[in-house]
Amino acid sequence: RCFHFCKLPGRVMGIRLLRFTSVVIIVLLLVAGALTALLPTIKDDKLPNSRREPKTQSQSALDSFTLIMQTYNRTDLLLKLLNHYQAIPQLHKVIVVWNNIGEKTPEEMWNSLGPHPVPVVFKVQTVNRMRNRLQNFPDLETKAVLMMDDDTLVSAHDLAFAFSVWKQFPEHIVGFVPRKHISTPSGVYSYGSFELQNPGFGNGDQYSMVLIGAAFFHSGYLEDFQRQPEPVYALIDETQNCDDIAMNFLVARHTGKPSGVFVKPVDIRNLEKDTNSGYSGMWHRAEHLLQRSYCVNKLVNIYDGMPLKYSNIMISQFGFPNYANHKNKM
Amino acid sequence: RCFHFCKLPGRVMGIRLLRFTSVVIIVLLLVAGALTALLPTIKDDKLPNSRREPKTQSQSALDSFTLIMQTYNRTDLLLKLLNHYQAIPQLHKVIVVWNNIGEKTPEEMWNSLGPHPVPVVFKVQTVNRMRNRLQNFPDLETKAVLMMDDDTLVSAHDLAFAFSVWKQFPEHIVGFVPRKHISTPSGVYSYGSFELQNPGFGNGDQYSMVLIGAAFFHSGYLEDFQRQPEPVYALIDETQNCDDIAMNFLVARHTGKPSGVFVKPVDIRNLEKDTNSGYSGMWHRAEHLLQRSYCVNKLVNIYDGMPLKYSNIMISQFGFPNYANHKNKM
Question: Going by fewer Cβ within 10 Å, which terminus of chain B is more open, N or C?
């Protein structure tokens, strides 16, 4: 019932309009409320290529690295090493490149022994190739890659430090194993380590490569690696060797500087002798080093020049492990 | 006398003209020859600010460095050190900042014992100030400065290596003596070395300064130093100390990065005990370290902020002095 307003015909119309609009507004609010309740939950998504990652994965792509470990015939070592590496701070994910063709991965067993600190992805390969580890894996979300051989154990301290060094030299291969090439009067190059003649630039030795079997490098180089001349792939496949030398050529060509930065490891171990498989690494083959000299010369041929440059910078961690490791008898 | 040509009047004119022009040409050639003989000899001049340098000075300004050594009351050490440093490869010139006010420099004796590998300039000072060595000397022709205390001997090997490192980090102070500041809960800073608490960024120690008493840095920073706030100069003059801390503040503010890069010296010696003068350095004063903590806090005040940044990078020379100094028990 109306009050004194009702007596006016215009106001009667006004009241009906007011009622109508009120009802419409209330209905709209109810519908909006219902829609809001039905919206999907927006996930916290810092990663460029979002996937369904567990909520524990909070490290951003810039502050962490991906471990890529290729494995062949040493699953016992692989699992031992995974237990160690999975707990390294700033590790984002592990990619295991499974070169055991036709053999089941240990994924089931891995999952049954969860939870794990980070996701581990087993990439099953179809052919047992050395360069399988240099694919541009879509699972890669970080800028930094840590590449490790499946028989090499590097301490968490060394890795944390080397990662901090890589962040200061992101265009270089920052790692623990330095090697060099030398020139001979004939113009033919030879590959080796400190037992080889110094290149002769001042006193001391020089290195021109850092091996990728224990090193950090930018994931962009995996992308670059897919765009190399065919003969490079043929060389690596023919020798089942030298993918790391090829990567050093690639990086040196890209930067015009020494490809690597050598970080002196405090605790690096080769667990090869500990394997039950009896399988010993490729580097035991009689022709291994000769092959690598061969690869250096082939790559110079393919790229029409020697891009590797020498460096004598050796980086260690100030005050670690000995808090006065820089003290001198001043 | 002419021949058959003379009979023609036109040709008579031609002959006279020919003779005349021949004579003119010959005279001009003679004058040109005389002038050429009289021209001064053009000196080989690669240096931007050319001065009358002896012909032995062939190192370009980019490939060499200038040693600046300030001296007070230790002329015997100075001369001993000059004999060592004057022979360092890639040394361009020595500037001795003579803080012995009113005392004659050893220039006469120096000259009488010539020839010397490089020029040595004695800059006589009017007041004995610590910051005299931080003037923008017009004698400076190189991009790089090596600053040395007058009681410090660093081996030629260390200097050659550190210079090569400086060329890779030209905006940093590259030297042999690292120090740090630490923050305390009260917000007051303290200055020290490895005996002080680690700053707590991961394991191991950190340094935030490299002292200029044994270091390479860019000569441009001497120019910058002339443009600092007056209280900085007052602080250095008041304490007769801390010019090196001030330089580290300057460099850190300029780069936004750690001011220094520490190169671990193989052979660095303090010859202080060898002086006949009995004069012992400023750092023996009881208040020396306390003064330096005081300076850190004053500079933070003057610059309204703490610009120093930490680093834990320690650089050594690969394969020197031990040719396998990077070998590990892999």
Answer: N
CB A131 within 8 A of CB A243: yes
- Mean predicted lDDT score pLDDT of chain B: 88
Contact A316 B318 (CB under 8 A): no
Quick: pLDDT tens for B253-307: 999 999 999 999 999 999 988 887 777 788 887 788 899 999 999 999 999 999 9
Per-residue pLDDT, averaged over B238-259, amounts to: 97
Q: Which among B198, B193, B166, B151 has a CA at the least distance from the CA of B66?
A: B166
What integer pLDDT is reported at residue A46 of this predicted model? Answer: 37
User: What CATH number corresponds to the domain at position A293?
Assistant: 3.90.550.10
Distance from CA of A271 to the nearest CA of B (A): 9
B318 contacts A311? CB cut-off 8 A: yes
Band of residue B43 on the pLDDT scale cut at 50, 70, 90: very low
Known catalytic residues of A are: 244
Mutation for testing the A interface, residue in B326, B327, B329 having most A CBs under 10 Å: B326
Which pLDDT score, from 0 to 100, does residue A55 have? Answer: 41
Q: Which of these ranges, A286-290, A303-307, B4-8, B163-167, has the smallest mean pLDDT? A: B4-8
pLDDT band at B140 (very low <50, low <70, confident <90, very high): very high
Q: Is B280 on the interface with A (CB under 8 A)?
A: no
Domain total in chain A: 1
- Minimum CA–CA partner of A205 in chain B: B319
List the catalytic residues of B: 244
For B102-116, the pLDDT digits (tens) are 999 999 999 999 999
Q: Does B200 touch chain A (CB under 8 A)?
A: no
B41 belongs to a structural domain:
no
The residue of chain B with its CA nearest to that of A316 is: B314
Domain span at residue B112 reads 65-315
Contacts of A304 (CB under 8 A, 6+ apart): none
- Using an 8 Å CB-CB cutoff, list chain A residues near B155: none
Residue B54 lies in a domain: no
A178 and B318 within 8 Å at the Cβ level: the answer is yes
For residue A15, being part of any structural domain is answered with no
Q: What is the DSSP annotation of B98-163?
A: E--TTSPPTHHHHHHT---SS-EEEEE-SS--GGGGGS--TT--SSEEEEE-TTEEE-HHHHHHHH
Average predicted confidence (pLDDT) for chain A: 88
Q: Which two tokens stand for residue A193?
A: 């380590």
Q: Is the peptide bond before B117 cis (omega within 30 degrees of 0)?
A: no
Give the one of B268, B323, B328 whose C-beta lies nearest to A268's C-beta. Answer: B328
Residue B325 to residue A314, Cβ atoms within 8 A: yes
CB contact under 8 A, A312 and B178: no
CB contact under 8 A, A198 and B264: no
CA distance B114 to B134: 28
Q: Which pLDDT value is given to residue B115?
A: 96
Instruction: Quickly state the pLDDT bin for B160 (edges 50, 70, 90).
Output: very high
Q: Which of B236, B245, B84, B244 is nearest to B152 (CA)?
A: B84
Residue B199 near residue B183 (C-beta atoms within 8 A): yes
In this complex, which of A265, A320, A327 lies closest to B204 when CB atoms are compared?
A320
Asked if residues B94 and B119 have their Cβ atoms less than 8 Å apart, the reply is yes
Q: Do the domain assignments include residue A241?
A: yes
**ipTM of the assembly?**
0.80
